[in-house]
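New to this. Please check this fold:
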Amino acid sequence: MSETSDEYWMRHALQLARRAREQGEVPVGAVLVQGDKVIGEGWNRPIGQHDPTAHAEMMALREGGKALENYRLLDTTLYVTLEPCIMCAGAIVHSRIGRLVFGARDEKTGAAGSLVDILGHPGMNHQVKVEQGVLAEECAAMLSDFFRMRREQKRAQRQAQRAAEQGATPGSAA
């Protein structure tokens, strides 16, 4: 696939990441493509679905399996805005994804080379071609903005709580 095509699909994944952000989730999006057709897509939903496995990649893989009626997702490319974690990297290997393209690296939990390299481990029974850095700045900025906003919200909540506590006088009815 060409760089232009990779950017096109990564922009699609960024749109999905925006959906996650709108739902109060960490903004990560994923789109699974076979040829020039979307067969699965997802965005982070672990909070809303009360499901620790509801990462964007997992949601896209689940849809892809249903679309192909197979757990093997051969000849597909998965586009993700953030480097997959260990759980998602394992699922990518087991599903036989041919190619992974991701935007931003994740130094804390990335399993495609940042923290560990599950996808490139020589002992794996399937090797995934990995390309990184597609629209990396845009992908990273969305995540940075989200976490900055979340920190500001928590700071404002703490300040409001302190103010409420200072406003309460000893012995007053609560």
Q: What stands out?
A: The radius of gyration is 19 Å. The mean pLDDT is 93. The longest strand covers residues 37-43. The beta strands are 29-34, 37-43, 77-82, 99-104, 129-132.
